[in-house]
Amino acid sequence: MNIEKIRAAARRLDGHAVRTPLLNAPLLDAEAGRRVFVKAECLQKTGSFKYRGGRSAVSALDPETRAQGVIAFSSGNHAQGVALAARELGAPAVIVMPSDAPALKIANTKALGAEVVLYDRAKEDRAEIGARLSGERGLTLIKPFDEPEVIAGQGTTGLEIAAQARAAGVEEGEVLVCCGGGGLTSGIALALEAEAPGLRPRPVEPEGFDDVARSLATGAIQSNDRLTGSLCDAIITQSPGEITFPIMQRLCGPGIVVTDEEALRAMAVAFTRLKVVLEPGGAVALAAALYHAEDKRDIIVVASGGNVDAPVYRDALARFA
Amino acid sequence: MNIEKIRAAARRLDGHAVRTPLLNAPLLDAEAGRRVFVKAECLQKTGSFKYRGGRSAVSALDPETRAQGVIAFSSGNHAQGVALAARELGAPAVIVMPSDAPALKIANTKALGAEVVLYDRAKEDRAEIGARLSGERGLTLIKPFDEPEVIAGQGTTGLEIAAQARAAGVEEGEVLVCCGGGGLTSGIALALEAEAPGLRPRPVEPEGFDDVARSLATGAIQSNDRLTGSLCDAIITQSPGEITFPIMQRLCGPGIVVTDEEALRAMAVAFTRLKVVLEPGGAVALAAALYHAEDKRDIIVVASGGNVDAPVYRDALARFA
Fold this sequence. Notes:
Two copies of one chain form a homodimer. By secondary structure, chain A is an alpha/beta fold.
């Protein structure tokens, strides 16, 4: 995994992925006591950065392999990113989802052209289903984060941040990244190392699901005890990846942990000050900048996604806007 | 008023105004039955396109005049746009607001560095207050729409639309614009005439406040009977301007009228599909594209602002998301 893979992904994504804006607002700065720049990946196609990795991975396949199709396991942002990328590139896509996934997510994934295969979480093994389908149809698995072409796609976010931060006069400081398995964080880290070495990425996670922070602190991959129970479902993973962790270990600062309530507060701030819709998992980096500031330097945060159900969003506004 | 003024404004705004994205989403297209491109001016500084006109007008003043300060009458988006532009350019700003304006809007305008002068709507004449302050302090009035440098600033939105539409492969069709006094609509119309003549602007207004649609239909400036009673307060004005109306008459298609309920529905669609926050008045153009389609051609809409109070927004989501 290296910067050249990210640059190649950027060429493949050019004209397809949205070059999302780096937002800033004087009244947000006043609230934070520092300049805060927000990379609005909620405005990316399908509402999250995951489209970048999906498009990068599917477009990197040789035409014959691609024509046979791709498969992904996801009920969330990765599903939609892969589904749209595959449709755009003419590849059949199978998305394997638990049968108790929200009806809207199933419907959206189908509307993006994917074939959705449901499985019973209690009785069936999704890996087995995936292996069977892949074998029968020659589908290529698109992993959610621990895969070089996926990391390369997410890393294009970092190339854009480097250029946009320079244009805004920010050459030094921290870049806070909402972090699940580390695909986005490690991709951004490699991009910044090459193009904005004064900017240091730091992963941000929800309280109780801080596998990356603990892995960085101990120097070895740690796991979460559980995978449910946070509003920040989009960024809950078992543990950092075997490819992503060493990159984060080499290039990232210590992890930051925020509460679900802080994530909801940050969603309300983004509503009031920036006019973008964030999901809880996409708001943890902004929450860290607002509520865990260690200094007053300019700071950049990645707002990684906006796919939130209306009731959760209304609750965030009712409590904190 | 001409295209050269808009180009000059674009040079003065370069590096200051946000080049807002032209958003698009496959699932929005599916819902609309056509490709819909949304120029997201809610992501502009201060949450609406009004910053463009404010910055254009204040930066066009000669340095000595500017140093004496500017004045504006507004309790809304124009107030915030002028206040920020003035602060950035080192000009004192006085904003005259009714004393019953929402406390938050008064607070925001002050936080942007302006001096807020309150007046009693029932007992005082704001024009008189303005004239007195201007006389005493040598302040320059920045009118909200019927002023060439303001129109020029709003017109920079049209230059960006022309380039972004071309990049998206849209050379012909309609550009729906949320319309109050016509500053944004006429500015965009002049920009498109010069740089994208296949794109025809059409003003969109709330039902019961369709002064521009009636003016275009009758060929003479018409007024609204009342100025309150719509959720779309940001775009309610007495009548189109003496400068803006002839431009719209020459270059725009017929006006379109939408209901408050359709505006709220469009806000919910923007939440779900685009992840941007729109205010009711900023959503009428999207509402027109969704609920008043006359054909299936690609369409561009301007989402002019996102400064909505949380209770109104929560209500829109509760009813329609």
